[in-house]
Amino acid sequence: MKRFDSLKVLRNVGTVTINSPESIMLARDKFASLLELAKNHVPIPETAMVEDPREAMTLTERWGEVVIKPLIGSLGLGSVKVSDPDIAYRVSKSILSVNQPVYVQKYVKKPDRDIRVFVVGDEVIGSIFRFSNGSWKTNVAQGAVAQMLTISSEIKEIGLKVVKAMKMDYAGIDVVEDTEDNSYKVLEVNASPLWHGFKTATGINPAKFIVKHLLEMIKK
After folding, report:
1. Alpha-carbon distance 152 to 147, whole Å?
2. Which residues lie below 8 Å from residue 99, measured CB to CB, with a gap of 6+?
3. Quick check: 163 and 22 in contact, CB under 8 A?
4. Which of 24, 78, 186, 212 is deepest in the core (most CB within 10 A)?
5. Distance separating alpha carbons of residues 61 and 84, to the nearest angstrom
6. pLDDT tens, 172-204?
7. CA-CA distance, 16 to 10, in Å (whole number)?
8. In sequence order, what are the beta bridge partners of 215?
9. Strand 66-69 and strand 123-131: pairing?
10. Using CA atoms, how far apart are residues 160 and 170, in angstroms rounded to an integer?
11. All domains of the chain, ordered by start, with CATH?
């Protein structure tokens, strides 16, 4: 909160911030950001936030397979895929024991990959596949392999819609291909995305685009 308030103070005295403090805070809160995306008709997986381990059990029984995540986290750390309601109960009880809510998301049946879309301003500068490497997780920081993906009109539309809904200057957006209904779904939005894998796969350096966008903001 101190850092959030510091950014607001800087902005209030005329300093240009990128992204805005409010957008960064919204993106950090996975559930709040998905609520905002749903409100703006961006496709997302079925998701719930509960404070009773029995409710996590019920969701696991209903959805068959779920991912229990930290409400605020990154790099895929702490995310657990569960299909056994009893395990969902134990994982949830552990999270609740340290006064954290339980964030439960229906697991999207997908190929062994996801898509990272990188948007700066009103431009989708590139996208990559992230292929899992012996794990269900597709984070490059956890060993996933990045491969350049040609941007389709549908991916571009989703990326721009997400950034507009979240009022962000730039973002890394995680998208999955849902094989059950042949659609795309947005898992989460990153306000401070890492880009080593993206740059290696595409040859595109997002920093150049971010600095250009920042300079344009300062001129305004």
Report:
1. 15
2. none
3. no
4. 186
5. 8
6. 999 999 999 999 999 999 999 999 999 999 999
7. 8
8. none
9. unpaired
10. 10
11. 21-43+109-219 (3.30.470.20), 47-106 (3.30.1490.20)
Q: If you count DSSP H runs as helices and E runs as strands, how many of each does the chain have, helices first?
A: 8, 9
Place of tokens 């409100």: 39
Tokens 């849902």 sit at which residue?
178
| Integer Cα distance of 14 and 124 in angstroms | 28
Pull the structure tokens for residue 126: 């590139």
Q: Who contacts 94 (Cβ-Cβ below 8 Å, separation ≥6)? A: none
Residue 67 confidence class, pLDDT cut points 50, 70, 90? very high
Q: What's the CA gap between 134 and 192, in Å, rounded?
A: 26
What's residue 32's pLDDT? 93
pLDDT value of residue 36 = 96
**Measured CA distances, 57 to 89, 91, 100, 153, 156 (Å):** 6, 10, 17, 39, 37
- Residue-level pLDDT at 91: 93
Token digits of residue 40:
């703006």
Please choose, from the candidates 51, 49, 149, the residue with its C-alpha nearest in 3D space to the C-alpha of residue 105.
Answer: 49
CA distances from 39 to 28, 50, 124, 183, 207 (A): 18, 20, 22, 18, 30
Q: How many angstroms separate the CA atoms of 205 and 141, rounded?
A: 18
Please give the helix or strand (H or E) that residue 185 lies within, else none.
Answer: strand 183-190
